[in-house]
């Protein structure tokens, strides 16, 4: 079934063989390759492999934990400066989930494992990493940890009996904790529910083959624009609208990118793997339970740190210990490994291009757009997977007067990003080249994608002002001045002041 999911992704890649699809497929190919290797090792030398695998998880957890403590104590800089610690991740959410999955695996081995000295190492490593999970403030990570450890407790007859006797109290505690978690970040939780709703609509719209690997954001933006343009939506929904990079649900994101069949097969694969592991009383069960729960509320498989962990956990469920490895899986493993090795040079070149971009990004912050255009031009073919780069390059080309090339770059960005700023900038290009009708359509589309942002209304107001369309100008200006944006800032206040200035100038000109 995993190879079927891989085939569905490959079909999508063949339809849109661009940079973002390549980057997504590189991670998927690695996951499939690790899965096949783990499957073979389980059949060839199960006891040795079990020790190697559990020690590898221990090393991964200790590495992330040590880095997390160093960040929390101020010895290292976190990936996100607004949070205490993020490990090697850019955000604390996936970091908390990674720690939770590893801790569930290691606690599971400490309870069910055979080798005593490894059990003590696993328990010590898990206890070392556990305090960092609450520090990440990751609700999904804490829920994943709770689910994994609860399933582990239920595997013991004594503990299962205790859970059955106190199920009502435990259920009330669980509901209370879930309610508290919702209220602590109510705005974020509501926004994610809308993301799930739009993602489900996107799956229906994109059909059986999906939008293509890595194209979730572009497809999501188009569907959100349709959602808000079809009819008038409640103000509450408009304020919840966001422009996410991920679906915050791996199963829904799989459905958007590879189609509903791939989504269903992914769910079946994970449930089947959990069932097979649980039936064998394997400690890997609880790590996979934690990962499957975490994937409901986050984006683990969009993070490279989860690639070996996901392939390892699913691979542990496949194959019977001691049986001879069939020739077809062996051939499939060789082919997958060859494909990964064949893709690695391009991946490395793209990483080098990322490094070059970061080294030259200072020119963009200094608004030296001629220098930006010159530096970015040499790496654009290797950076078509990076929406931030494409936006900066589009801005630089626009400010150097190269509107046609700016449009082509922005159109690439529109396909891989949910940010309406691509549409706003494209509209500004059209406006400055005299195509006011198309600019108007682009500004309206940007506002439909994110109907809680003031900037598209400001651009429309300025367009009507320059076009001397008095009726539309006054109507849009009034709407913008009475508009309540999702985030009020000095920037939005400055836009309102500029609109007021345009109204005063327009009134003065009319009197003249």
How would you characterize the overall build of this protein?
- It is built from 25 helices and no strands.
- It has helices at residues 2-15, 19-44, 46-72, 92-112, 116-129, 132-135, 139-154, 157-165, 167-184, 186-206, 216-230, 235-240, 250-258, 260-279, 284-294, 306-316, 327-365, 369-377, 387-399, 403-416, 421-432, 436-449, 455-467, 470-481, 490-511.
- With 512 residues, it is mostly helical.
- Helices cover 76% and strands 0% of the residues.
- The longest helix is centred in the last third of the chain and has 39 residues, at 327-365.
- The mean pLDDT is 87.
- The radius of gyration is 26 Å and the shape is globular.
Topology at a glance:
Blueprint: H1 2-15, H2 19-44, H3 46-72, H4 92-112, H5 116-129, H6 132-135, H7 139-154, H8 157-165, H9 167-184, H10 186-206, H11 216-230, H12 235-240, H13 250-258, H14 260-279, H15 284-294, H16 306-316, H17 327-365, H18 369-377, H19 387-399, H20 403-416, H21 421-432, H22 436-449, H23 455-467, H24 470-481, H25 490-511
Helix pairs in contact: 1-2, 1-14, 2-3, 2-16, 2-17, 3-4, 3-5, 4-5, 4-7, 4-15, 7-15, 10-11, 10-13, 11-20, 11-22, 13-14, 14-15, 14-16, 15-16, 17-18, 18-19, 19-20, 19-21, 20-21, 21-22, 22-23, 23-24, 23-25, 24-25
Task: Specify the structural class.
Answer: mainly alpha
H-E order: HHHHHHHHHHHHHHHHHHHHHHHHH
Number of strands: 0
Tally of alpha and pi helices: 25
Strand content: under 5%
